[in-house]
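Message: Study each token:
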Amino acid sequence: MPFTVGITVRGYETDTQGHLNQAVYLQYAEHARWSLLQACGIRQSTMVDRRIGPVTVETTIRYRRELRAGDEVEVSCAFVWGEGKTFVIEQTVTKADGTVAAELSAVCGLLDLEKRKLLPDPRAAFRELAAEPAALGLG
């Protein structure tokens, strides 16, 4: 079961049609990703101290149903590991009634903040940082 975080759509996040602004979906996804990292024991400050940081190199969003102010949603977050420098984070924004509002897929990596290059093995770095690596799919 993927990690989820609950969010209530706020009125100021909506556009002139009363829909959740498209850019806010990215903010919700980012919030869920950082919440998952924190749940695994990975703090942003620790990553900065180690001179590494997560980066997104590509994001795809599929909008399925509108969201309006006051809607309660769950944003899921699951890491999908392959080989190499990047990994995929799959996320779903689901309304309280179970309706899928959006699906997001992000290709990500871990950046060496000094060399400005992706780490060759992000899994190893996450395993080292995480107190609970299983939630990252690194059991």
User: Anything to note?
Assistant: Residues 3-134 form a domain with the Thiol Ester Dehydrase; Chain A fold (CATH 3.10.129.10).
